[in-house]
Amino acid sequence: MDTLNLRHVASPAVRDLIHLVNLPDFDRAHQQIDHLGGCTEPVRLLGQTTTIDTATGEVLRSYNTADEPTGSLLTSCGNRRASRCPACSRVYAADTFQLIRAGLTGGKSVPNTVRTHPRVFATLTAPSFGPVHNRPTDASGVLRPCRCGKRHEAADALLGTPLDPKTYDYPGAVLFNAHAGALWARFTIYLRREIAARLGLTQKAARAVLRVSFAKVAEYQKRGLVHFHAVIRLDGPDGSTQLPPPSATVTMLADAIRAAAARVSVTVVSDAIGERELLWGQQLDVREIAAFGTEAELTDHAVAAYVAKYATKSADSSGALDRALFCRPCQGRGMTLTRHGTPLQCTACTGTGQARPLARLAVERHVRQMIRTCWELGTRPEFAELKLWKWAHMLGFRGHFSTKSRCYSVTLGALRDNRRAWRTEQARAHTGLPDLDPSTTLVIGHWAYHGSGYSPGAELLAAAVWHRREVERQFTAEGGC
Questions:
Q1: Distances (CA, A) of 390 to 176, 327, 352, 384, 434
Q2: What are phi and psi of 204, to 5 degrees?
Q3: DSSP notation for 361-426
Q4: What residue ranges in 92-132 does DSSP mark as E strands?
């Protein structure tokens, strides 16, 4: 088939791919896409850099995006959500795994002796806001009927939804999500107090001999409520390089966690819903973390992999949305936006208080009501600082999904800096530049944002790159060589 006929039958993406392949510097364009590893929505940059030897004034290297085949430089989006960018979320999960594991076994500037410190894996859950469909089991693990009388399958869409939506406490559920970060902050305060009391010390004296280090991630339950998985470790006063006192045992730490969680509360007062006391749920799980290689199920390696897995998930895992619903041009106070080609109007701008666009969202009824409740409470002056209209797609939760204390282990920023330095060295070796002395090397650059995403043809190439790497990963995981 000749090119003329192909133009009439091929899709726009295929035509754009043909145009891209026929560029004189297609190899460079393909190299950029391949370098991103299948990133779904890269950032396009315009600009240039010049590397100068300040001792001699010699220009060692110059780069300008105008010399690129497509006129711009592609960089990865870096989105941690697997629903938004599987490729970048894998990198984020890998970094989180390294961060968590370093705090359990050492490495990445953390001494190996840290594995001898008392450490537990704790899960703090949300309380009940009304009975929901679930899969209860008896003492032997046999599945029992739900309260509705059915034995639900594991993939049943009803799981986590209220048995009676009319009596379910939706305002309480949304406010719990919105205050989950505050509940965690108070939990860490009470935990330090409980530990000090068990050591028979004042809080000031306890800080002089012991430090509480932690790393946590948030996970959405089926019912749309967040709970926290946390690695909690006891160190000496200077952090991971020191052991805590002998009296600071795993048993003492577990008891202190349970007592601290029971003390935490946040009181919310509103004319619309009255006074609410937000608490942690009764289902609190605290287990000791065993060393890797033991027969225990909960090893440091398993915990690191588990935490990394949930670090890349968001509200979409509970059937909600992974993009904001508020109107960005006016920050929720006007205009309209489009989601997957469907016009949505911001309820904060119409002044009606009616969540008319919510009926068009492809979500379950329970999730839609959570979002509607966020919109309705977000219009109340007493909840203005929660910005519930902004975080409606997250069902009210506005905290970070992955956080850690200062001395737990290496930071994500340090891991990214190391990866950036490695790539810079690889690029230097590829261009044939000599080893550069940082004290006499000056890099002058100017960059501007040009847009995001691929052209239709480049998107096909990116999908092929992702598919190829997924096949390679599966082959390696199955024992291929």
A1: 16, 9, 18, 11, 50
A2: -65, -45
A3: S-S-HHHHHHHHHHHHHHTSGGGGGGTTTTTGGGTT--S-SEEE-TTSS--HHHHHHHHHHHHHHH
A4: 119-124
Characterize 27-38 residue by residue with b for buried, 16 or more Cβ atoms within 10 angstroms of its Cβ, and e for exposed.
Answer: eebbebbeebbb
DSSP assignment of 218-280 equals EEE-TTS-EEEEEEEEEEBTTBTTSPPPTT--HHHHHHHHHHHHHH--EEEEETTTEEEEE--
| pTM of the full structure | 0.82
Residue pair 318/126 in contact (Cβ under 8 Å)? The answer is: no
User: Distance between alpha carbon 462 and the CA centroid of its chain, in Å?
Assistant: 23
Return the pLDDT at 344: 46
Helix-strand-coil percent breakdown of the chain, rounded to 5?
40, 20, 40
* Cβ proximity of 375 and 389 under 8 Å: yes
Closest CA to 107 of 296, 297, 292: 292
Between CA 463 and CA 218 the distance in angstroms is 30
Measured distance between the N- and C-terminal CA atoms of the chain, rounded to whole angstroms: 40
Q: What is the pLDDT of residue 341?
A: 40
Do the beta carbons of residue 374 and residue 388 sit within 8 Å? yes
Placement of tokens 């010699």 in the chain: 58
Q: Determine the pLDDT at residue 188.
A: 96
Quote the CA–CA distance of 6 and 13 in Å, as a whole number. Answer: 12
What residue type is assigned to position 65 of the chain? T
The pair of structure tokens assigned to 388 is 């519930």
Instruction: Tell me the mean pLDDT per 10 residues along the chain, length 481.
Output: 51 86 88 90 92 84 89 89 85 88 90 93 95 89 89 88 93 96 96 96 94 93 91 94 94 96 95 91 93 74 84 61 62 41 45 50 85 89 90 88 90 88 75 69 89 90 90 77 54
What CA dihedral angle connects 84, 85, 88 and 92, to 10 degrees? Answer: 40
Tokens of 345: 């109007």
Contact (Cβ atoms closer than 8 angstroms) between residue 298 and residue 288: yes
Distance of CA 279 to the CA centre of its chain: 24
3-state secondary structure of 448: strand
C-alpha pair distances (Å), 11 with each of 7, 29, 111, 270, 460: 8, 21, 57, 56, 12
Bridge partners, 216 (sequence order): 230, 403
